[in-house]
Design brief:
The protein is an alpha/beta fold and 296 residues long. Helices cover 31% and strands 15% of the residues. Helix 3 runs parallel beside helix 4. The mean pLDDT is 92. Bound molecules: iron/sulfur cluster (2 copies). The site of one iron/sulfur cluster has 12 residues, from loops.
C-alpha cells in the first residue's frame, strides 16, 4: 500500500515544476524531529554503474568498504541510544552488493534490531550472480531488496523473479516500477554562499536521508560524502563538527532527532534554489560541471 502511494506520488511529481514541489514540501511536509529513526549506512563508497552526477559521488569515489567491526560498534551504540526507536536500517552505497560481506551486515542489523525494516538499496545489476547462501541469508534475516530500475540493458524482471523464487522481498524504488530512473541535481556552490536555513528548507534530503558514518549521524548523505568530491576535484568544501552529531557523545535520542531536523553549516554549499529533477540518465564523464552550475 505504501509502495503504491509512493509510486503515485512520484508520478505526480514528474508533472510538477521543481520550485512548486519544493514549496509544497515546505507547506505540507515541513521538517520536524522524527520519533523513530530511519538511518542509511554506506557499506561501500564506489559503484559499478557510474551514473552522471551521482549525488553520493560514487562515480568519483575510490574503492572503499565500510569496516564491519566499526559498523557493528556503531549499531550497538545506536541500540543503546535509541532502543527500539530505530524503524529502518538501509544499507546503501555506492553499490552495496559489491560488498562481499553484505549478508553479514544485514545479519548484524537484524540481530540488534529484530523489529526494524532492514533493506538494501541497490541498482540490482549484481543480483543474477548471487549464490544460494546469499538468498538464504536475506530470507532468514527478512531483508528487503529495494531496487532502482536504470535505463540500461539489464533484465530487471529476471532479477525480481529470482528474488521471488528465493522468497526474498523485492520492491522497485523511487521513480521505478514502470518508470525508469532519472537523475536530479542539487548544484554545489563551491563558495558556500547560500543561506543554510533557506537551503535546508528547500532540500528534499535533509532529515530524510539520515546517514550514519564513523559514529556520527548526519541529516543527509551529502555531508559525510563531500570528502569524495574534495578528493577528486581538489575543492575545499568544509565539513565541521556541528554538521553531524556524535552518537557516543550524546545519550539523548530526542536531542539527536532535533539536531537532524535542523539546518547545519554545510547546507551553505547546496544551491537548492537551482535544484533540478528529471535529468536524463547517462554515464559520467567525471567533469565537475555534473555537480556545479556554470555561467553559460
Ligand atoms: S547506481 Fe546509484 S550509487 Fe551508483 S553511480 Fe548510479 S546513482 Fe550513484
Ligand atoms: S547539506 Fe543541507 S541542503 Fe545540502 S543536501 Fe544536506 S541537508 Fe540538504
Amino acid at each position: 500500500m505504501r509502495n503504491k502511494a509512493e509510486q503515485i506520488k512520484n508520478k505526480i511529481k514528474c508533472y510538477i515544476p521543481d520550485r512548486i514541489w519544493q514549496i509544497m514540501r515546505i507547506v505540507f511536509n515541513p521538517k520536524k524531529p522524527k520519533t523513530k529513526l530511519r538511518v542509511e549506512i554506506h557499506v561501500v563508497d564506489h559503484c559499478n554503474l557510474n551514473c552522471r552526477g551521482c549525488d553520493n559521488f560514487s562515480c568519483i569515489a575510490k574503492p572503499s568498504f565500510l569496516d564491519i567491526d566499526e559498523y557493528k560498534r556503531d549499531l550497538v551504540r545506536l541500540r543503546e541510544v535509541f532502543n527500539n526507536d530505530v524503524e529502518w536500517i538501509t544499507l546503501i552505497g555506492g553499490e552495496p552488493l559489491l560488498n562481499k560481506k553484505i549478508t553479514s551486515y544485514c545479519h548484524i542489523a537484524r540481530e540488534l534490531f529484530p523489529d526494524a525494516l532492514i533493506r538494501i538499496i541497490t541498482n540490482g545489476t549484481l543480483l543474477l550472480d548471487k549464490n544460494d547462501s546469499f538468498w538464504k541469508s536475506l530470507k532468514t534475516d527478512d531483508v528487503l531488496l529495494y531496487v532502482t530500475k536504470y535505463p540500461i540493458d539489464f533484465d530487471y524482471d529476471k532479477a525480481k523473479a529470482l528474488a521471488e523464487k528465493n522468497e526474498v522481498k523485492f520492491r522497485y524504488a523511487f521513480e521505478s516500477g514502470d518508470v525508469l530512473k532519472t537523475m536530479y541535481m542539487t548544484p554545489i556552490d563551491l563558495k558556500g554562499s547560500q543561506n543554510p536555513k533557506i537551503s535546508y528548507k528547500l532540500c528534499g534530503k535533509g532529515n530524510k536521508c539520515i546517514t550514519l558514518k564513523d559514529g556520527k549521524l548526519y541529516t543527509c548523505e551529502a555531508i559525510p560524502n563531500f570528502f569524495t568530491f574534495n578528493n577528486y576535484f581538489g575543492t575545499d568544501i568544509k565539513v565541521c563538527d556541528e554538521d553531524g552529531i556524535d552518537i557516543y557523545a550524546c545519550d539523548d535520542s530526542k536531542a539527536i532527532m532535533k539536531h537532524l531536523a535542523s539546518a547545519v553549516p554545510a547546507c551553505r554549499y547546496c544551491d537548492n534554489k537551482h535544484y533540478r529533477s528529471g535529468i536524463d540518465w547517462g554515464v559520467t564523464e567525471r567533469k565537475i560541471t555534473e555537480w556545479i552550475l556554470t555561467q553559460e
